[in-house]
Design brief:
The protein has one domain. The protein has five helices and no strands. Helix 2 packs antiparallel against helix 3. The radius of gyration is 18 Å and the shape is elongated. The two termini are about 15 Å apart.
């Protein structure tokens, strides 16, 4: 799923480099699943605890805010790196058109100013 020269942390949190369409769609597919699982776990744990409602609200809002920040950061990082793969500035991620475009357009072959071709790196590691 990830290029051999990047770690999971770099793929999810870094705004530098490039990722393939496959990696981009995997991130966008699994992120909502993780969010749903987290929300379900959050609900189960809070229903089973005996703390006061005021504390529950504070805990839920704090945890959900943290998770929202992580969700947005990871989504933006994946989008920026996908933009880099097709040779565009990462700022294009802020436009709606780019959401559709960079998800389906094939990246440039070979290295560009944003890094090595992730497809070539993946083929070399096989």
């Amino acid at each position: 799923m990830f290029a051999s020269n990047t770690t999971l942390i770099q793929t999810l949190f870094s705004f530098k480099g490039r990722i393939r369409r496959y990696t981009f769609w995997n991130v966008l597919f699994f992120l909502p699943l993780v969010t749903f699982g987290f929300a379900l776990l959050n609900e189960i744990v809070l229903r089973k605890t005996s703390i006061s409602d005021d504390v529950k609200v504070f805990v839920v809002v704090g945890i959900n805010l943290l998770f929202l920040i992580l969700f947005v950061w990871i989504s933006l990082a994946a989008g920026v790196k996908r933009c880099h793969d097709i040779g565009c500035s990462g700022w294009w991620v802020l436009t709606y058109f780019a959401l559709v475009w960079y998800g389906f357009v094939k990246g440039f072959r070979g290295p560009n100013k944003y890094g090595d071709d992730p497809l070539q790196v993946a083929k070399q590691s096989l």
